[in-house]
Structures are given as structure tokens and as C-alpha cells.
Fold this protein.
Amino acid sequence: MDASWFVVLSAFIFCIGAAGVLTRRNPLVILLCLELMLNAGNLALVSFSRMHGSLDGQIFALIVMVVAACEVVIGLGLIVAMHRRRLRIDVDEMAQLRG
Amino acid sequence: MSAGSYGWLVLAFPLGGALLIALGWRLLPGRSAGWIASGAIFGSFLSAIGALFALLEREPEARAVTSTWFSYAQTAGLSVDMGLLIDPLSVFMALVVSGVSLLIHIYSVAYMASDRGYARYFAYLNLFVFSMLLLVLAGNLILLTVGWAFVGAASYLLISFWYRRKTATAAGMKAFVINVIGDVGLVIATFLLFSETGAVDYAGVFDGAAKVFEPGDTTLVIACLLLLVGAFAKSAQLPLHTWLPDAMEGPTPVSALIHAATMVTAGVYLIARTHPLFELAPTAADVAAIVGTLTLLFAATVALVATDLKRIIAYSTISQIGYMVLGVSAFAYSAGLFHLMTHAFFKALLFMAAGSVIAAMAGRQSIDAMGGLRVAMPLTFATFTAGALALAGAPLTSGFFSKDEVIAATLDRGGLYTVLAIGAYVGALLTALYAFRIVFRVFLGEPVVEARSLARGQLAPSRHENPATGEQEDTDVGFPGPEHHIAERERSMAAPMGALALLALLAGLLGVPAVTHVVDRFLEPTFADSQYIDQTPSDGAAYLGLAIGGALSLVGIAAAYLLYVRRPALPLVLRARFARTHRLLSSRWYFDELFDRLLVRPTVAAGRFGNAVVERFLVQGALVDGTSAVVRAGSSAARAAQTGQVRAYAFLLILGVSALVLYFLSGSV
């Protein structure tokens, strides 16, 4: 089976994730979309790994999952912290870095 | 020792004295600074005498010694030595400068005794004498320029010596600026002569000029006129004379030293020194002679009506230097220089006596406030009268022989110079008149309060005020000291005045026509190359000139006696009758106003314009504020990009990555 279909699918999923990150304001959904993007990347890595008959890509995918888990921990932690300070759960409100 | 070594010693003494006093002034108690300075000048004077004898030992043709210490600059086509030229002219000048300076130093020891800036004064004074000696001994035009500029700087320091007096600092600045105008003329003339002749040492320039230039060459005339700009600025000739009367703001011995005996004669020296050039460019010499004559007439008329004692003498200095310039420009070099010497004696004397008078008047300088000082100040009266007789050219005094030698030589040239000689005779008459106007108004007549109290043995207490403006002053450093000193009570003031009085009366005997020609003979080797060396007036013409001059002088003195002693009301009548003339003269022919209108105000206006337009608008507005406005606009644009919204950053990030990806993809196809 040709690996290019998997790559195309991964590109689609990545674009859906990116669009979600750009358009949604709820941090939870943004985290979900980020997860989509990461997993699209994983899919591409695994596809290329199979295409070249090398295991390197699959190991990369495992590492990305670890990174994704860490990121989710930090992201959820931030959301909890926002909730505790009774801030609105909306990324556009978090604009204090404006120049 | 050789003449060259003596020359260096002449310079070393005053420089050493200046440094010693300047560095060690804290350790010098009482009047010791004054005596150290006087000793330094005495050493210089002795060295000058040594140089004189070293020269006299040589054959007359070999009496020009160059002495080089080191080579200052040696590049393609240019060779400047740190070198002196010891010849009769420079030794003559060195003797006059160091001799008169010595007496003035000794006078100053007492005169300045209570001034808080005592050591500073003598350091300046020694520096000044060093500069002047460097000027006259310099062996090339570059070193001459160095001495020339040093003299200007030292005179600035001395004129502004009482630096908390606004009038004094303004006068110092004026003198400095006008002197710098002269420096510029001298420097450009040096460039011009170097570019044409390829040399800067005197012998090289003169030899080169004789080869390069035809007589009357335009370039040479321009170079000589530029030299004259320098000479006129230093010697206070029209129209660059305005600094000298103002320079009377300095202490009186300074006036005696700088503005009578030494600095102002530098221009005369320069013309005499570069005489081979002027003989090749007779047009420039004619210009100098005409300016000299106009100056001597102008200054004499102003001196007739001026009321400030020191300024009258200052104008008489300008006038007498006019005679010297006329003399050296009429190629009667030894006559001009002889007058330079006698003038140094009697003018220094007049200033010293004036200083004593001003001290007795507790700092007042207006002759309207003086009178009848004869009884209280017999010594000052006697010496001042001796000086005034010499200034007036009364028969057998020094001024009689020297001034009339100048005029006789001028008359002998004929043509245009006949007119100039007649002008000089008119000036001589006026000179006698104003010289004795001072004597009669200050020393004769009804004694004023100060004169009466001094006759009882009580010196009037100082006023502590600026004599020009009447502003109150204290006696701390930067203002005159608390006490005044008069010649009758200070031996170190009386001795130099007595010596100068003898010189003023008797120095003329060095140059009696057909009898003694000491100065002529001595200076002859320097001017041996002159084509006019043999054109001296016949003895008959010289004696006729002496007779006319002596008669005019006696007429002038008699007129002064009539006007100021016999009929004191007459001057007032004349003044009312010729009110406009009087106003013209007492405003000094409006020269200061003219310069104010022509130069000062346009300069100030240009400065204001520059401030308003260039500085405020262009520099401050466009450059400084413009730069910051550009930076501010740029940074506010950059700030606007920082929205703080994560999604916007993410969008930009993705946009960038997409652009990169597209770029590489399109490249790989």
C-alpha cells in the first residue's frame, strides 16, 4: 500500500488542528486541536518510517507522545489556574503581553 | 661664547623666570616674585649685551649669525629650523626690549606690590618679554609667527589681568581678536612667500624673492600688503588701531611695557626686517607710508581732546608709531628704528609717571579731575616733563633728533613723500600741543583735593572703583590691590623713572646729524643690501628739518601754554565754537561705531539668525527631534504588532512556516 495516502491524511488532520488553534477561543479546545496537530505529525512520521523501512520515525513518534503528554499537563494546569483565579476561560482575554 | 649662544640665553632667562614664578608662586613671599622676574630680565639684558659685543667682534659683512638648535620640520621642499638670526637689527631690538622691560619690571615691583595677583602678574610679564624676544630673534618666518602669536596671547593675559573687571576682559578680547586678524595676514603672507620662493628663513626668502619677482610684481605686492595687515594690527595703525586705547584697562606698567615700548613696535620691526621685499614692492611701501601718516595725524587729533590720562598717552603711542611706520616705509630704516628706540624710552617714562599720578589720584584717570600736582609730586612732575619734552620733540631731546630724522628722510624722497612729510610736521605740532596739554593740566593750575592732601604728606585713600564706569570693586584677586604706590615714596619706582628721564633727554645724542651716527652705523650691515642705503638727506637738509621740527615743537608748547595756563577759558570757548569737530574727535572719529555697525552688529545678527534658524530649526528641529521622531514612529509600529493575543502569534507563526514550506517546495520542483 502506498504511504502517500497516509501523508495526505496527516496533512489534512494537521490543517484541521491548525485551523482550530487559530479560530477557537476556548483553551480546552485549543489544546485538543494542538493534540490533533501533534498526532498528524506522528502519523506522518510513522508513514515515512514505513516508507523507508526504518524504525527511527516510530521512535520519534513515541517521543512526540511524551512531549504531548507533558504539554497537556501544563496546558490543563494553566486552565485550572485560570479557573481558580476566576478568570474567564478565553484566550483572547489573556493579552497582557501586548506591546 | 658665540653670538648664537647669547641669543639663546636672551630667550632662556625670561622663559625660565616665567616658569619659575608660575610653578613656585606659593613659595615666593612678599615682593620676591617681582625681584626674580626683574633678575630674569636683567640676565636677558646682559645676554643681549653679550650678543652685541660678540657681533661687534666680527667683520661688518659677517654680522649676521644664524644659530640652529634643532630642525623643526624637514619635508619635501620645506625646511624649518628652530633657529635664531642674530644680526644688528635683532640685537638692537633685543637690547631695547630687554632694557626697557627691565626698568618696567623694577617699577612694577613696587607699583603692583599690594595686588593679590602679584606673582601671576610677573609670570605674565616674563612670558610677554620672552614672546617679544622670540619675535625679534626668530630666524625664519615660522618662528616669527610663533613669537607673534605668543605676544598676542601674553598681551591678552596682561590686558585682562584684572579679570573681574568687565571692561578689562572686554578690552583683552578686543585686543586678541584684532591681533588674530593680524596673525592671519602674517600667516597667509608666509604661505604666499613660501609657495613662491620655497623658503621660510629670511635669507632664503629674500634671495628667492630677488630671483623670482620682478620689481613691482603683483604677487609680491599682495604678500607685502598681507605682511602689513599683520604689522598694522600689532602696531595699532589705521584701521586696526581700536584695540590699543582700550588696552589701557591693564595695569599701568603693562601699558608702559606692551603698549609703548615693545609689542606695538613689532609691526615696525617686521617692515624693517622684510625690507628687501618692500623695496621690490614699492607700492606696498607707499601704502604703509600713507597709512602711517594718516594714523599719526588721526591719533594726534584724538589725543588733543581725550580726557583719560592713559588714553591720551595711548593715542600718542599710535601717533608715534605712525612716524616709525612712515620712516621704515620711506626706506629710512635706521631713522625709523632710532625713533622706535627713543620712543620706547620716553613713552615708557610717560606711562610710569602717569601710573604714579593715577596712584596719587587714588585710581582716577580723567585729567579733568587733576591739577596742581607739581608741588606734591616733584619727581613725577620732573620726569613726566622730561618725557613730554622728548615726545614733543623739543630741541636737543631724544624725540627731537629721532622724529625729525624720520621726517627729513621722508622729505628727501620727494614726490608723494613731500606731502606725507608735511603731514608729519603738522602731526609734530599737534604732538607738542597735546603733550603739554597733559603737563599743564595735570601738574600746573589750582591743586585738587588729592594734590593738597599729598602735599601735606597724606596719600588719598583708594576708591576701589572702575575708573571707566565707576563700578564699586573689592581689592581681592582679579581687582587692583588696596594700596597705591607713588614714585615719591618708592625707590624702585623712582629709579627706573630717573634712568628713563635721562635716556629720554639724552639718547638723541646717539644720532645727531653729521656728528654721531651710532645707530645708523650699527644697523648698517642689516640694511647694506638696501638700494636706498646711501640716500640719506644731506647734512644741510637734516639741519633744516631739525630747525623746522624744533620750531614747530616750541610753537606747540607755547600754544599749549597759552591755552591751558594763560587763558584756561579759551579751550572751552574753542570747544563750544567747534562743537561738531570736538564731538568728532572725542568720539575718536567714530571708528568704534563704524566697526560696530559694519562688523559687530552684522556678526551678532548673523549669530542670532544662526541660532533661530540653523540651530533651533535645522539642528534641533530637523536633525535631533527628527531622528527621535523617526525612531519613535518605527517603534510604535513594532509595538502595534505585539497584540498579546496568542492566536495572532500562532497565525503569524503558521503563516511564516507555510511561506517557508512553499518556498522550498517551489524550489525543489
